[in-house]
Recover the amino acids of this structure.
């Protein structure tokens, strides 16, 4: 909490940690796939590493840039307008799919939010611009999902889901969703979680997001990580090859209140 005398928030340094390392994060198309303040997700990762004395390197990969799957521990792709997704999708498949596949196969974390989630799937089908008919935007297929822009309203609102990531038992992620696409899971694809409140993948299945090992897609904006710092820690730990409990605890009073406020907004 801010110090009433100074108005400053005290630095929250974790106890000295035996962990020495660097989290290497790569943001994909940070200029195009960046609505709903996706940058806030990256800042949370950076801060929570810094507070623990863990190094943090942020790089980006944009249109036309090849991706070195070995050079990063965590890949992030945020939300986007359909127009920008069209631009990125071809490029993602052409210049980054191999690197991303290799990274996911060796256990790197790949996190896609909303439009980014859709692009981690197999395809996104939407009406052609200014003409009748539809087009299919390719995805990289790291998640066995496909997305269709169907008739019907955008799926908008506060959302809360229950996720079981480890043996620790179920936890709640809370956020905000705003998507025209409906996402359908392949037969063997695990969702990220179960919808408690909100629309989720398609508005009726009760499922939200998708997860295959350390590759995760979700419709939760918010941004996602400031509202759910426990999940940020889970991602950091996974990306560094650690158990979540291995990270030093932080003084998280404001973050806990932020999480509860997001849950209350969703009615959970
Ligand atoms: N353009 C996509 C859709 O409307 C994703 C939107 C988003 O990232 N918020 O479904």
């Amino acid at each position: 909490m801010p110090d009433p005398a100074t108005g400053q928030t005290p630095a929250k340094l974790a106890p000295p940690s035996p962990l020495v390392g660097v989290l290497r994060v790569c943001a994909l198309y940070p200029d195009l796939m960046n609505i709903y303040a996706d940058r806030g997700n990256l800042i949370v990762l950076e801060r929570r590493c810094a507070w623990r004395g863990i190094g943090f390197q942020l790089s980006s990969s944009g249109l036309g840039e090849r991706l070195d799957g070995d050079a990063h521990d965590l890949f992030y792709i945020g939300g986007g307008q359909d127009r920008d997704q069209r631009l990125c999708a071809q490029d993602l498949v052409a210049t980054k799919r191999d690197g991303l596949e290799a990274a996911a196969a060796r256990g790197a974390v790949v996190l896609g939010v909303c439009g980014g989630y859709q692009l981690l799937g197999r395809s996104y089908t939407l009406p052609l611009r200014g003409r009748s008919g539809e087009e299919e935007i390719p995805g990289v297929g790291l998640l066995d999902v496909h997305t269709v822009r169907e008739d019907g309203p955008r799926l908008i609102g506060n959302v809360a889901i229950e996720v079981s990531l480890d043996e620790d038992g179920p936890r709640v992620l809370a956020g905000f969703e705003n998507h025209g696409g409906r996402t359908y899971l392949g037969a063997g694809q695990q969702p990220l979680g179960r919808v408690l409140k909100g629309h989720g993948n398609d508005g009726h299945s009760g499922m939200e997001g998708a997860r295959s090992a350390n590759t995760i897609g979700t419709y939760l904006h918010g941004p996602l990580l400031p509202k759910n710092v426990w999940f940020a820690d889970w991602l950091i730990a996974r990306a560094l090859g650690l158990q979540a409990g291995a990270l030093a605890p932080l003084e998280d009073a404001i973050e806990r209140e932020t999480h509860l406020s997001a849950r209350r907004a969703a009615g959970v």
Remarks:
- The chain has a mean pLDDT of 92.
- Residues 68 and 248 are 30 Å apart (CA to CA).
